[in-house]
Design a protein that fits this description.
The protein is of the alpha/beta class. Helix content is 48%, strand content 11%. The chain is built from 24 helices and 18 strands.
Amino acid sequence: MEPPSLLRKYNTTNDSIKLRREQMDIKNRTVLVLGGAGLVGMAICRKLVDENPKCIIVTSLLQSEAEEAVRILQREFPKLSKKFFSPWWGNIFVRNTLKDTKREDTINNPTTRQMLIDDMLSELTENVLHRSSIFILLKKYKPDIIIDCINSATAIAYQDIFTGARKFIQQLRNTKVKKGASALIESTERLLCTLYVPQLIRHVQLLYRSMNDSGTKLYLKIGTSGTGGMGLNIPYTHSEEKPSSVLLSKSSVAGAQTLLLFLMGRTPDAPITKEIKPTAAIAWKRVAFGEIKKRGKPIELYDCPPSRGVKLSRTLQTSMKNFAKPMNKTLKSVFIDTGENGLFSRGEFEAITTPGQMEFVTPEEIAEDTIYEIRGGNTGHDIINALDNATFGPTYRAGYLFQHAKEQIVELEIKYNVDSVAFEMLGPPRLSKLLYEGYLLKLCCKDIKCVLRTSAQELSKKLRKIIERDSILRSQIISIGIPILLPDGKTLLRANEIKIPAYQDGKELNITKKNIDLWAHDGWVDLRVANMKLWKSRFDEILRRVDEIPSEDSSSRFLNTSKYWEDFKEIDPGKLAGWIFSYEEKGMRMKA
């Protein structure tokens, strides 16, 4: 019988429909708006008020921005409680102790730079999770709904890996001549800190785990295409290269993030996952006259009279300190404030919104679609849903042909007198370990019921005898990188290279009971008595589920019936491994 938890997730019962409706209801829910102080974030916060949430947490990178946004919202909605809007600030991509430190300051400091590298590239442990700012934020507020308006692609891609790589190459060349090892080390570490994909992957991992822990029910991302909806011919660039590598990096990161959210949306225990991806410029916040600022700093005015002009000869210096005459003034003009994209002049705004250029969409329109999607409506702008409908999933034809392919494999096994078990091509090593353990049990016992009749101690002894006498089988197992742990728990049969533990680069590791158990779980064929007990409990569970299926029920309701298991007349390692991944390890696919 299917487990109750899975029945709740995959059956369209009245209870599950009711649960989905509750998840879509914003009323009395805690809503976290990441990037809530921005242009789109503020529009969404205003639109949320009409839905009567319990409270709204408004976040920004800087404390001043978050608090100012809350003050504005409190002035606009004076009848609401002062606690209805709560500010939070900091960088959600780093550990909590670094969230208020400027990125450049973090990278310039060798200690904090190493923290960034460790958090991004090391294994995702509980410590890494619990010290992250996103985990602590979600743990504090336990939001039911998260609306993510942070331009993550820009935040990650505009760290500019290309400049860092060029500096690294230059330092490498200098080291060959001057042996400047310390400078090379710093350049290498700074380059590692700008790696796009590892940062994005770790961010999504932490986000998923944190939402799981805090009980978040829905996550909606306001994404980006990276080019305002334009193609490779985009005229708006960041260098003479058209389009610039940095701009294309932004689009690449945006696409990678969408695919990671696509995967999260296919994860049974993840929150409902959506993404709205505007493909136009977003405008506007205000029109005014005042000081023109770039990246938060006023543009200083300088002068260069014709008498002081530079004569062009053989070389051109791209930077000349103290050359131009400071005017001791800043640039002031009329501007249109486009939020995160900065201040545009009339000419710039007219150019970018000309039909055939980026054109633009208003933040209020994005906010309307956001609320409608959260409430369960279908705007046609949820890109995750669009991908679900556009991707090519499993087919009836392939399912029909599966048995034919399997029969051909079995015929060749008989012809060549071999059993095709595992090659460690598919991965993970745990799959190969499970397949070989299931295969050894098949050699030891004819069927599942035989395994259940045999004690764990006897199974352990029999499997050891098989390994001892069958050198070919033993060689096949260890040669694909899967060691064999003998019943004493102290003796390991192995080849030169082993798959588990992974990513250690030949490093020697401490052998402890905890480590042995972990490694045996992840990718060692484990002949210990405890593992035999585990296999017996698995078979007990399979039989129990089958026994709970009503004998008179011949409908399509149940998959893992007695017929599925060939009436338990033999042990099929592949089916067992698939069952373990689906049910025991909760790795079941949730969308066809």
